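User: Reviewer 2 asked us to show a designed sequence for the structure in our supplementary figure. I'm pasting the structure tokens here. Could you produce the per-position amino acids so we can include them in the response letter?
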């Protein structure tokens, strides 16, 4: 069985663009319950699940006093480390 690569690894290989990653972050910030995000290369990522699975991001996102500008870096970190599915 092959290991699924992270978003960062796929970006390093040129399979996912940084523009796509920024769009995924924006999609989550606009709607944390958004449907799975589909990258141009055909990879799909459940953004809410990616945030929940990232310990630092999940803990910080749950803080009531944290505004969007403080949450954004944690969301981005979780997405970079997530392992998307191939469509």
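Assistant: Here is a per-position design you can include in the supplement:
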């Amino acid at each position: 069985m092959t290991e699924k690569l992270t978003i960062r690894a796929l970006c390093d290989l040129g399979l996912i663009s940084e523009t796509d990653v920024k769009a995924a972050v924006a999609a989550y910030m606009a709607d944390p319950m958004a449907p799975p995000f589909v990258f141009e290369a055909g990879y799909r990522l459940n953004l809410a699940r990616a945030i929940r699975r990232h310990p630092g991001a999940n803990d910080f996102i749950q803080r009531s006093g944290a505004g969007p500008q403080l949450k954004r870096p944690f969301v981005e970190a979780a997405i970079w480390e997530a392992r998307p599915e191939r469509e």
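For the response letter, you might also mention the following. The chain has a mean pLDDT of 92. The helical segments are 7-12, 18-30, 47-53, 55-61, 68-81.
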